[in-house]
Design goal:
homodimer, about 260 residues, alpha+beta, Arc Repressor Mutant, subunit A, Chorismate lyase, 2 domains, two-stranded antiparallel sheet, DNA-binding, UTRA (chains A, B), Tscrpt_reg_HTH_GntR (chains A, B)
Chain lengths: ~260, ~260
Amino acid sequence: MAGSPENVRADGHSQMTDAVPRGTGVTLWRQIAERLEADIAAGRWQPGERLPVEAELASAFGVNRHTLRRALAALAEAGLIEATAGRGTFVKAPPLRYPIGPRTRFSEIVTAGGRWPFGRFLEARVEPADAEVARELDIPQGTDVLRIESIHEADGVPISCGIAWFAAARCPDLDLIYAATGSLTRALATLGIEDFRRRETRITARPANAREMEQLSIAAGRSVIVLERVDVEPNGRPLQWGRSSFAADRVQLVFKP
Amino acid sequence: MAGSPENVRADGHSQMTDAVPRGTGVTLWRQIAERLEADIAAGRWQPGERLPVEAELASAFGVNRHTLRRALAALAEAGLIEATAGRGTFVKAPPLRYPIGPRTRFSEIVTAGGRWPFGRFLEARVEPADAEVARELDIPQGTDVLRIESIHEADGVPISCGIAWFAAARCPDLDLIYAATGSLTRALATLGIEDFRRRETRITARPANAREMEQLSIAAGRSVIVLERVDVEPNGRPLQWGRSSFAADRVQLVFKP
DNA sequence: GAACATTTGTCCGTATGTATC
DNA sequence: CGATACATACGGACAAATGTT
């Protein structure tokens, strides 16, 4: 593979070795972007690593800095890198692939990605169901529901935060068990509820609000994916309804029919 | 139904008729928010309509303007209304439910929602497949692919914009037929390709970029849902791969396993 | 472009009820 | 019981954005 300049600093005479060919019908910036993308995909630069400064990269590719910046802009647009004035340009961590199907559980998703899952319990309380919760759980308005607020992390990095509601009668002390184990899946299993499946997943997105910025450690203006879900038991009765906000920069939700 | 003030202007003496009860154990702002939400749900105020100004609503409910603003903030958080300084507070249109399954087609989705679908063709050209397109379509890099850029609208409101790639050999003149009919589904049918299904849908989100702001008529800082998809023919060969940006304020993607 | 009215957004401060230690 | 912290509610003033003249 035609790697990008790996000897920018070491060998001043090699500036032209990686120069991009001109007159090929492909613009210079596109060629550069594709080379850098291939390098990142190949692991030439690791996530979190800082790229050489723009001037060095530009001279290594034999182009003007503006041309190089056009290539970096394309990569930033694609979400592969992130530039900060005064700090440098960094390779972003690839988003966590988050498969969603009838029976996916958070802990399995994260474990499959080679990361360590953790559900950080924030708050639980019993409250009467408002109109929305009652509709989604198919219970009379005002019935007691258990409301659990939590944050999900992978390797200590917050992935999502949100609120889930359970019919309180069906899940006695679920909150206590969850708080102890850190896994909702296991807490439900303790109650003998293992066989539930996703009935519907609804998705939208919006800029993060103040709470999400804090809980997910994301910058102002970044997006969250808002995911609403209904899980049902084998008999078709809704078990939980919830709404979670995902740090959009860190996950890619994957649906396979 | 205990409606919210409908005679704010008409009858100056009715200020207290809709006043919220105090000392009930439910905060004033929550009572107000629930009343307004019920009114919007009941169609008392139509999508796009402007609510009375804050001062009027406050006096109608018999509370301070700050208390009313707390209620409006809750509704805005829930996505029911949107306020702009100097203009007023408006009821937002409910998002278009956009079901995604193995065989959903854009035209069917929008028609089912009682709206009129339209794919506005922007540009088509044949180009050699780059690394990403080649991988997704499972063809050798450099093979000719047809790249189609388009915008999808419902009732004249832009819903999504994006780019789709087809193996050029499989779809001769697809671009011309699409440009003529405005429906990709029909254009493919003309070529005898009717039976394809979604193999995978990947989703993330980010703030809209300049192009999306223009093509989708959305404000700076708003979010887009970025949806990548692979459609395959019955024999399993990829037919199209594409990446679309949805105006997150206008759609809710719905997945049913 | 300037002046103006309208409307939302933000800040100051104060008082009160409620839950907690 | 008091001390304390917090959310709720109110009052006033001004800034910022928008639309109109």
